[in-house]
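Q&A log
Question type: sequence-to-structure
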Amino acid sequence: MTISVALAMLHRDGRWLLQLRDDIDSIIYPGHWGLFGGHVEPGESPADAVQRELEEEISWVPSAPLQLWFSDASGTRIAHVFRGPLTVPLEQLKLREGQDLKLASLEELCSETIWSDHCQEQRPIAPGLSIVMRRLLAEMDDA
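Response status: OK
Response body:
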């Protein structure tokens, strides 16, 4: 069975919002940086799922719907990646899932390890985030 997930690539001040996943062995990529989002529930659209997940994970809902950027079907899941601005300061978000959040620069994202203030150490980015990075870099090259 194919799992469908909806993820948010949110930007503010030239940086991208990341979530540091919990260090729980039963989840995919524990302790890795990734995007906020999660599973699309049965009967739910990816667009509705990303809105719901943002509210659940950081207590924030975009004022305008996020735009679907691309979908990637690799392996056993389909990732629907949405993109849009984070219209509030980082301090207004309430982290309710994961152990840290950060606005990361493109340079940090490309380094594949990012510093966590909460953990006081470098943590790796999730493998799926490299697909997002390649798309972002390709777009910048085309611009």
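Response note: The chain has a mean pLDDT of 93.
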